[in-house]
Specification:
This protein is an alpha+beta fold. The protein has 3 helices and 4 strands. The longest helix is centred in the N-terminal third of the chain and has 12 residues.
């Protein structure tokens, strides 16, 4: 299992559009990716609703986990996505 930590840069956190962008990118990896925040149970990163239930806001730290071939590179790309302000 590979793990990465990211700080959410979008001003609205993982809500609506940023959550949808992230979920599509997670699905495109073809890997099972989870996201956890603030001691909450991890959610499937491919689920927009799951991501929104985490209640992640600007500046929150999240933990991404994935397993499988290419997981480190996939997680690096997802971290970059989270650490970009998509509302700017």
């Amino acid at each position: 299992m590979h793990t990465r930590t990211a700080v959410v840069a979008s001003r609205v956190g993982l809500h609506a559009r940023p959550a949808a962008l992230f979920a599509r990118a997670a699905a495109a990896t073809g890997l099972p990716v989870t996201v956890a925040a603030d001691g909450k149970d991890p959610v499937d990163a491919r689920s927009v609703l799951g991501l929104m239930t985490l209640g992640v806001v600007f500046g929150d730290e999240v933990v991404l986990r994935a397993d499988g071939d290419g997981a480190p590179a996939a997680l690096d790309g997802l971290v970059t996505l989270l650490e970009t302000d998509h509302d700017a």
